Amino acid sequence: MQASTHQRRTPATSGLLYGLSAYVLWGLFPLFWPLLEPANPLEILACRIVFCFVVIAVLLAARHELAGMRRLDRGTVLRLCAAGIAVAINWGVYIWGVNNGHVIETSLGYFINPLVTIALGVVILHERLRAVQWTAVGLGVVAVVVLSVDYGRPPWIALALACSFGTYGFLKKGVRASPPEGLLIEGAVTSIPALIILAALALAGQATFVGHAAGVGHILLLISAGPVTAVPLLFFAGAATRLPLSTMGLLQYVTPVMQFAIGVLILRESTSFALLCGFSLVWIALAILGFDGVRHRQRTPAPAAA
Q1: Angstrom distance (rounded) from CA 13 to CA 306
Q2: Which residues, including other chains, have CB under 8 Å from residue 78's CB and lie 6 or more apart?
Q3: Positive or negative torsion for Cα 231, 228, 92, 116
Q4: In sequence order, what DSSP letters do the residues of 5-35 get, joined into one string?
Q5: Please, what is the angle between helix 131-151 and helix 273-299, to 10°?
Q6: Alpha helix (H) ranges present in 68-130?
Q7: What is the DSSP track for 245-305?
Q8: Who's near 149: CB < 8 A, 6+ residues apart?
Q9: In tens digits, what is the pLDDT along the chain, a chain of 306 residues?
Q10: Half-sphere exposure of residue 110, counting CA atoms within 13 Å on the CB side?
Q11: pTM, entire model
Q12: Neighbours of 273 (CB within 10 A)
């Protein structure tokens, strides 16, 4: 009995470890991307895309899974290509925000991402929201207005991150491809423009990965952007197959909480009463969504056994 219980718990335990590892690594990203300077955000993004693609391709080749890519239909491939573009935009905005002193605002983007996902469902899929969900969305809108007044501008970085990642999740929903296969196609479609960008920067004398001034340490850091990107994505994939969506939904807030803490406590970014009020409204909206989600699942009858 003890052995069978242990076996039943093992997938959930390993899934929790995978999930925490993924979100903690993502939470530490604000401390990593500045290490790649003096490379500009565009060069960092291009290196991140190219070397992540290389890592995933090597992984699939080592597992003899490249041949299986042929089973993917055209619609799946096109959907993954669009997802690759969306996540590349997300990565680019995030790197620019972190390396230009907007870590707190980038954390806001991932806090409001669930609200943007709901909005996409309403606009694109014509989903109907419960009153409590409308309340959460309304609080999110009020929070954006409060933060816009505080910043003196709309929080474009946060909105761009939330919308691009929400779009990425929407495009990935229901895709019949394994996570490494999806990442390979996403990387393939974005690696071509990334290589063009690197070549253009090199020809213009603005690339830091070539030339005598680059340094081996700097080049290795740029190359490390690939595995640094791929590893948490693979951890996330391992967690997603072992944990229920409710647990994954709770774990996702580990990343923006860490980013917010890093921005305030380590990088000493300025805060204000209005900023804290805006974030508080977002946190209240997320708490409402979480409570409503739990209550709705409890009220929904379980499907009858076949």
Answers
A1: 29
A2: none
A3: positive
A4: HHHHHHHHHHHHHHHHHHHHHHHTHHHHGGG
A5: 170
A6: 74-99, 103-111, 113-124
A7: HHHHHHHTTHHHHHHHHIIIIIS-----HHHHHHHHHHHHHHHHHHHHHHHHHHHSPPPPP
A8: 274
A9: 444 444 455 677 888 999 999 999 999 999 999 999 999 999 999 999 999 999 999 999 998 888 778 888 889 999 999 999 999 999 999 999 999 999 999 999 999 988 888 888 888 877 788 888 889 989 999 999 999 999 999 999 999 999 999 899 888 877 888 888 888 999 999 999 999 999 999 999 888 987 656 688 999 999 999 999 999 988 888 887 787 766 777 788 999 999 999 999 999 999 999 999 999 999 999 998 888 777 766 665 544 433
A10: 24
A11: 0.89
A12: 8
Q: Which of 165, 180, 172, 178 is nearest to 234 (CA)?
A: 180
- Tokens 């605002």 belong to 105
Residue 243 DSSP code: S
> What is the identity of the amino acid at 59?
L
Length of the chain counted residue by residue: 306
Which is nearest to 52 in space by CA: 156, 161, 148, 189? 189
* Residue whose tokens read 């991140």: 48
Q: For 130, left (φ over 0), alpha (ψ -120 to 50), or beta?
A: beta
